[in-house]
Write a structure and sequence with these properties.
This protein is mainly alpha-helical. α4 runs antiparallel to α16, α8 packs antiparallel against α13 and α12 packs antiparallel against α15. It is built from 19 helices and four strands. The longest helix has 35 residues. Strands 1-3 form a two-stranded antiparallel ribbon. Strands 2-4 form a two-stranded antiparallel sheet.
Length: 472
């Protein structure tokens, strides 16, 4: 297995600069994100629906969704630390891609079949669903964190924005497929109606397809991408001789205490951004069912409710589709107005997009709301990391990317604890009102970006260099 050692540097032996990677190489090393985000899109668009089909009430949904941020809180820093201190014949990050992909594929197959597994094991159906959801979430985090770190490992810093933008494009493609797949299967004649206590066939088959795509895309990245050796990493850090030192898991706490100032400032923005996203992912199906389809909050099994579930997946696919095009535009936009200004504009667009869902009653025009969310999603997946990467030491890339995930999962945990009761007690179980709250939080994130965040190397000259350095 991998050699678990920490490395520090001693004695100059010559300095190297990371070579620029071609667009094909950047795509190859990020291709696995397509499968990861397809799995994530299937989960985001269907987890609430699956749990409702299995008997969960609307005020309980956010509690079940707590599984995702809790697993991310624990898993990502650990995987980042292990990756920073691992070298194996397969590479530094790739072993974790593979392990995460296999376990997540199993979770994808099992989650929509929780009712059948319950009958075989004489267990509580919602408990089984949560166990499989936890398995999926932990595995997605195992696979996802190393991909963020891989950009920092493989790319020179002036290519960082393009590297994360390519990931955003592949994320968008995967999410579009994952989000819309149940709806596409329904149009092909596969049933979208769920017998009480079970999940509809179109959702089950979608999860099977997602598992297959996840495995294939991860294998593609593993086969086509060669990671740098420890000696090459040392030379990029200043051309120093490598001396081995045993690493300890407790080092994570020391690293957390030394979090760069830029990460803290971006973390404040991330809090409000991801609070809004979690609100959208958890409550959109219920919001559409009650506000747009006129159903009662108690209706979680009818054909109309499942139409709302299909529409949720379609809308989520739409904002991911728009994010693909915005990802291409991020670098040129940042050239003219700066990275942090680009991110602030994107967050404001996403916030107003969420708020507009309350006012757009005709479901045929909800795509307008998704345009703003597409801009926000593209930027959330790229700009914070592009602004962060300059402040992270190369040898700590994995663990700091994992720690940065704290600022993503903590707002989700807080929202998960209080979101359901707020919807139930203050909004009369009408989830659309809480969607508006999410939009306001995202707009606040835009304001805080302009106030708090310092944009490193953000001049038009630097970004122009970034564009010119990418070759095909």
């Amino acid at each position: 297995m991998a050699e678990m050692v920490g490395r520090f540097e001693k004695g100059k032996v010559g300095k190297k600069i990371k070579p620029n990677l071609s667009m094909a190489q950047i795509i190859n090393m990020s291709m696995g994100f397509l499968g990861i985000q397809m799995a994530f899109g299937l989960q985001n668009g269907n987890a609430s629906r699956i749990l409702a089909n299995l008997g969960a009430d609307v005020h309980e949904l956010s509690w079940f969704w707590l599984v995702a941020p809790f697993t991310g809180l624990i898993v990502q820093p650990i995987i980042g630390h292990l990756g920073d201190n691992t070298w194996s014949p397969l590479g530094r990050r790739k072993p974790y891609f593979l392990i995460g992909a296999v376990l997540c594929a199993i979770g994808l197959v099992m989650l929509p079949n929780a009712a059948s597994a319950t009958q075989m094991m004489a267990a509580n159906v919602l408990l089984m669903a949560v166990i499989f959801l936890a398995m999926m979430d932990a595995s997605i985090n195992v696979a996802m964190e190393p991909f963020r770190a891989l950009v920092g490992d493989m790319l020179p810093k002036h290519q960082a924005t393009i590297g994360f933008s390519v990931q955003t494009i592949l994320i968008g493609i995967g999410a579009v497929i994952g989000s819309d797949l149940p709806n596409w299967l329904t149009k092909m004649g596969i049933s979208n109606e769920a017998p009480k206590g079970f999940v509809a066939d179109n959702v089950i088959y979608s999860f099977y397809i997602g598992a297959a795509v996840l495995i294939l895309s991860i294998l593609y990245t593993i086969i086509t991408t060669k990671e740098y050796s420890p000696e090459e990493f040392a030379s990029f850090e200043g051309g120093k001789e490598i001396v081995e030192e045993k690493s300890r898991m407790s080092d994570i706490f020391r690293d957390f205490a030394n979090v760069p100032s830029q990460m803290k400032k971006l973390g404040v923005v991330q809090f409000f951004s991801w609070f809004a996203l979690f609100t959208m992912w958890v409550f959109t199906t219920s919001a559409l069912a009650t506000h747009h389809f006129g159903l009662s909050p108690e209706d979680t099994h009818s054909a109309e409710f499942n139409k709302a579930g299909d529409l949720t997946g379609s809308l989520f696919g739409s904002y991911n589709f728009y994010a693909i095009f915005f990802a291409f535009a991020l670098t040129p936009i940042a050239k003219f107005i700066g990275k942090k200004q680009t991110h602030a504009l994107a967050l404001a667009s996403g916030g107003f997009g969420l708020i507009s869902m309350y006012f757009i009653k005709d479901i045929n025009y909800l795509w307008i709301s998704m345009v703003g969310l597409g801009f926000a999603w593209a930027s959330i997946l790229a700009m914070p990391y592009a602004m962060l990467i300059d402040s992270i030491p190369q040898k700590k890339m994995g663990v700091y990317m994992g720690i940065f995930n704290f600022f993503i999962v903590i707002p989700q945990i807080i929202n998960g604890v209080f979101g359901g009761p707020i919807v139930s007690r203050f909004f009369g179980r009408m989830a659309i009102d809480y969607i508006v709250v999410g939009g306001i939080c995202m707009v606040l994130g835009a304001v805080l970006t302009l106030i708090f965040v310092k944009s490193e190397h953000d001049t038009p000259k630097e970004i122009e260099k970034e564009i010119q350095q990418v070759h095909f």
